[in-house]
């Protein structure tokens, strides 16, 4: 089968012909139709150290068709179109076929095109887990406030929609006219400029005691002190970006505040007992996307899936300026 | 009225005669019968900087009788015996009379003596808020595991009981024969030695992936790396002890783990809208103490309440070796 991979020979992506894998146990064999590129792809590329004849296939956000199933599969059958983010410890979706555990997969939203659907799984799972599993937002939190730092990125665009949908007052951050417009379109009621300190801007909006929740989708170290100040007593901060440098935690003590990380590959990497939650999230999200409660965050499509296009996509993601989501569609 | 205070003249406690305060608004005037000494008392003593003629009265854990009420009080009436921890930003309970907001007060457990009841409020609120408000433990968490670091201290003794009561598997830490016996008496199913690394001890007990919850009631910086290792994927750590030094947060990212602080004075200090929760906690805890579901953690009583006894009590607390709770009872 065709694949785009990394080898020992070069740091460039290479068009390869490799053996098609065989599904066992809970795995589906999926024929890939469109993939989406995320910051995790560029991070994994940087972290990849290849020895010997190994080939590394990246890509964890895809739409495709189930063409074969493992012996223990119960949730899907061949012929179904599915969408999924997958498991970063396994070969990814820059390939004609990939293996994916059924518990990490949802049926593709019917009313969305392939590229619209491919844009969604990784960021939807991330935003969903951050809001509902890490920050623990529940129905009774309606009316509370959330600050979403970097509202116009991939995760921000869906987190803004989900937070607005459950009745939170959403304050997103953006710094360019086009990102401000984008995040307002998805439900942000206030937009702050993340190039300036956020706490004074929140006070100006009337959030004197701070906000109930903060979701950080940008350099966490850079925003750390500002977030500690901006969170209200008993409030909660969640970040998807690692605190690479040590941090002072002192300001959070007085407020009995909480900090959590969201990493969407935790469930698959550690094979947690609640791994099937990602199947449930994707299923529920598909209903919401089909019903129009959620909108796709797709903003750019490249084609076809080959080394040159993947390289171009990585350059765009690395710039940090992508608004919404970038999808690469179809093999030649 | 009699009081034991700190003045500009000396760092020693001094027996004083000061004016009796008058209750307004939501305040109760309480005649103090017994008080309990906590680490917060010794920390507040150290942090106290007195200028001019000011007098600082410490003490935030008490039992007494309501003798007068403010005009907006609805929860209590005069003649009732009450127990409370109070508000660290106001004068404390080392005095014949103190003012306390009714929303931070509960009726004294009927079946407990004055000193048995005085031992409970501050540590019960702390343990309760840590387990149920910060770690967010709910009924469905029955059967999950919690590591309580320093199980035999004031908060540890009640946290162990509460955690065991809701059906968690409790692993407490202790290092001396008498503390091991104490923590087992209160419901710890396993006892680890916190003078050695905890993660290998947990693995030996069969907690290969770590524990679901960790409650740190000891030097948080010293246990930081060990706790990051010992918490399971998607697990939660709560501490009541400030991380005074900066910390690396990297290990928590991969696990989507959570860290929270519990500081029992957050609600009163910031006058949060849910401040009355402390009244509710003390009310519920009184029922549990009266019914025998919870046991008092009282372990030592001194008498009477004066400068010399308070000094002795502070020395005992500062040693860090107190098992359970220390109470000082009655004025001369």
Automatic annotation (TrEMBL), chains A, B:
Keyword Zinc: yes
Keyword list, A-Z: Metal-binding, Oxidoreductase, Zinc
Domain spans labelled Enoyl reductase (ER): 8-328
InterPro entries referenced in this protein's UniProt entry, alphabetically: ADH-like_N, ADH_Zn_typ-1, ER, GroES-like_sf, NAD(P)-bd_dom_sf, YIM1/Zinc_Alcohol_DH_Fams
Superkingdom assignment: Bacteria
Keyword field contains Zinc: yes
Protein family according to the UniProt entry: Belongs to the zinc-containing alcohol dehydrogenase family. Quinone oxidoreductase subfamily.
Protein name: Zinc-type alcohol dehydrogenase-like protein
Species of provenance: Listeria swaminathanii
